[in-house]
């Protein structure tokens, strides 16, 4: 009976635990942005207030000792999932109120802190509930279900909200936009020339069933003029409000004395690429949208118009949210679509406007996820094992505050702390810079040193082959590590996560036009990352072993975030100065430090090997 409680089949709880770990993160960081946009919050406010919601995950090592000192990790998991459910319910039921933005933000903060605390407990429990061999084996499985949570939050939940909007509103407005190889004509904007409808009876949205856009280029000035005129018309007729740009401060001492001179020196020495100074952009088309008849007095009809399916190389210049009422419904509103300037072939995309009860739709979505997390809490209350080592780690006779500081001190008193810190900070040094610039490199025009992919091609490469390679690499890394241990695979995994970066240097040198070659390079790099990242996760688990393993693992993840954040922040600035080829040379140079550190990294040869029973 005791064995049944202390040992449970990991397949019964690891997938659900890490799905539950990833879902609140994507809800706070991604889904909240989409929701606020649909509810009419300005981009300025969305960017300002939701960016701060990342803070709890950045500073979670600061309160990780509390999770270690008080109660069990199992207790924290079950309670935090319940609190996440409460936070989601709070978001759901404050959406309909007048000051919903302030109230929902408060509940998102609760959600963020409880989710970050859940992460600490879940990662700690993973180390307590599994043997070292099982930890190695399941490290790829847990990453896979975490990614499934990302896809659910960014995809399925958004689809559910859209379906609810459709079911609660007017018939969706569907506009097909086709890019065709026909002569480019001058674009003119004459809003008064559009027919003003005053039909009676059934109310619905009217537009053109098909909009044809000639493939080609127009001048930047002409495109900017069309966009400005359309926005001015829509704003003056109160279809949406103008957003005030955030003021930029005057350049300070650092910019004038250090940043700018350094930038010019590096650009002169290293940037041999021809920067794209093209004065032309992709062609545009204007889409009219209007109501068939007047709405009832005092009634507002909100239409969210956005991309639905097809080639992402045809896109709206921004997502439109129109408000139609009795003051403006006798006039058409307008949207602008623009082609990717690199688009050469005929293609098609569909844009859909939905006018349902947006607040009700998001209320239902958030309420459903709240119920899901209550179910997670109840399920894990019974499904999680009861490891004998899962106890509060407070030393008898010592104060909580004293134990709190001792937890941090114990981490930095570890043997080989210097090599541990260098490993944590340098293992992803090259990858942290590459990941920021990989997509811009693939998208940028060839004249600017990029490969000139369209947005649709990029989505195809990363969203299919890249995602599959990443998942396979992660799962395979866990399987092989569980057979011969971390020490055996450490160098191989370090090579796997670093050497495939060479693919991007080769792409920048040879500039292939075949999507197959580009896809192959991305697949190699993503597989290498999935395989190589296994070593980082297992090493973090290894150095966290001991009395305060939960808090110490959180500290290692904090250093990982630091090692990713600072180089990543500088990567765009550096690439812009020295160009893509020199930047990828720099990335390869940044792979060297970790190989100088690895000879000093000590790992037990038996760590990670799965017992053969």
UniProtKB/TrEMBL annotation:
PANTHER family, sorted: MAJOR FACILITATOR SUPERFAMILY DOMAIN-CONTAINING PROTEIN 3, SOLUTE CARRIER FAMILY 33 ACETYL-COA TRANSPORTER -RELATED
Species annotation = Draconibacterium orientale
Q: Which SUPFAM superfamilies match?
A: MFS general substrate transporter
Protein name, per record: MFS transporter
The record's subcellular location field reads: Membrane
- The protein's superkingdom reads Bacteria
Q: How does it sit in the membrane?
A: Multi-pass membrane protein
**Transmembrane stretches, by residue range?**
12-34, 46-63, 75-95, 101-125, 360-379, 459-482, 489-510, 516-539, 551-574, 580-601
Family matches, as InterPro entries:
AmpG_permease/AT-1, MFS_trans_sf
Keywords noted in UniProt: Membrane, Transmembrane, Transmembrane helix, Transport
A GO CC term? membrane
Q: Where is the signal peptide?
A: none
């Amino acid at each position: 009976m005791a064995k049944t409680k202390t040992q449970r089949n990991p397949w019964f709880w690891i997938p659900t635990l890490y799905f539950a770990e990833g879902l609140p993160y994507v809800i706070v960081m991604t889904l909240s942005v989409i929701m606020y946009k649909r509810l009419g919050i300005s981009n300025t406010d969305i960017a300002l207030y939701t960016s701060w919601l990342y803070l709890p995950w950045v500073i979670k090592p600061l309160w990780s000792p509390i999770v270690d000192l008080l109660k069990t990790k199992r207790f924290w998991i079950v309670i935090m999932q319940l609190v996440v459910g409460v936070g989601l319910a709070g978001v759901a039921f404050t959406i309909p109120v007048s000051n919903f933005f302030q109230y929902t933000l408060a509940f998102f903060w609760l959600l963020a802190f409880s989710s970050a605390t859940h992460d600490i407990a879940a990662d700690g429990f993973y180390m307590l509930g599994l043997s070292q061999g099982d930890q190695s084996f399941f490290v790829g499985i847990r990453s896979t279900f975490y990614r499934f949570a990302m896809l659910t939050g960014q995809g399925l939940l958004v689809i559910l909200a859209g379906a609810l909007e459709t079911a609660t509103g007017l018939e969706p407005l569907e506009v097909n936009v086709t890019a065709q190889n026909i002569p480019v004509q001058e674009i003119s904007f004459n809003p008064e020339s559009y027919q003003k409808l005053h039909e009676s009876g059934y109310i619905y949205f009217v537009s053109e069933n098909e909009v044809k856009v000639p493939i080609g280029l127009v001048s930047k000035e002409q495109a900017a003029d069309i966009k400005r005129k359309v926005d001015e018309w829509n704003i003056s007729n109160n279809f949406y409000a103008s957003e005030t740009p955030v003021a930029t401060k005057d350049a300070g001492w650092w910019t004038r004395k250090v940043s700018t001179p350094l930038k010019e020196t590096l650009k002169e020495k290293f940037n041999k690429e021809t920067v794209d100074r093209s004065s032309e952009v992709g062609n545009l088309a204007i889409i009219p949208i209007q109501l068939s008849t007047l709405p009832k007095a005092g009634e507002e009809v909100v239409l969210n118009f956005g991309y639905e399916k097809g080639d992402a190389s045809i896109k709206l210049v921004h997502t439109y949210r129109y408000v139609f009422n009795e003051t403006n419904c006798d006039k058409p509103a307008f949207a602008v679509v623009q082609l990717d300037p690199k688009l050469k072939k005929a293609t098609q995309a569909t844009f859909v406007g939905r006018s349902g009860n947006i607040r009700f739709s998001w209320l239902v979505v958030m309420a459903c996820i709240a119920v899901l997390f209550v179910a997670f809490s109840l399920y894990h209350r019974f499904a999680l094992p009861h490891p004998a080592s899962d106890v509060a780690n407070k030393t008898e006779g010592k104060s909580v505050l004293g134990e709190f500081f001792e937890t941090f001190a114990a981490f930095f008193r570890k043997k080989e702390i210097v090599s541990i810190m260098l490993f944590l900070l340098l293992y992803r040094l090259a990858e942290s810079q590459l990941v920021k610039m990989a997509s811009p490199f693939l998208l940028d025009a060839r004249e600017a040193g990029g490969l000139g992919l369209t947005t649709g091609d990029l989505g195809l490469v990363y969203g299919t082959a890249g995602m599959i390679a990443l998942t396979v690499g992660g799962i395979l890394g866990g399987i092989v590590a569980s057979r011969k241990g971390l020490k055996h695979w450490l160098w191989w995994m370090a090579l796997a996560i670093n050497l495939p970066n060479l693919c991007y240097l080769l792409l920048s040198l040879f500039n292939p036009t075949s999507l197959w070659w580009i896809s192959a390079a991305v697949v190699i790099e993503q597989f290498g990352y999935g395989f190589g990242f296994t070593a980082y996760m297992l090493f973090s688990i290894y150095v966290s072993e001991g009395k305060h393993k939960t808090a110490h693992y959180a500290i290692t993840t904090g250093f990982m975030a630091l090692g990713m954040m600072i180089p990543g922040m500088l990567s765009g600035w550096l690439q812009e100065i020295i160009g893509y080829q020199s930047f990828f040379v720099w990335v390869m140079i940044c792979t060297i430090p970790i190989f100088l550190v690895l000879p000093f990294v000590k790992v037990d040869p038996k760590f990670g090997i799965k017992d053969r029973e």
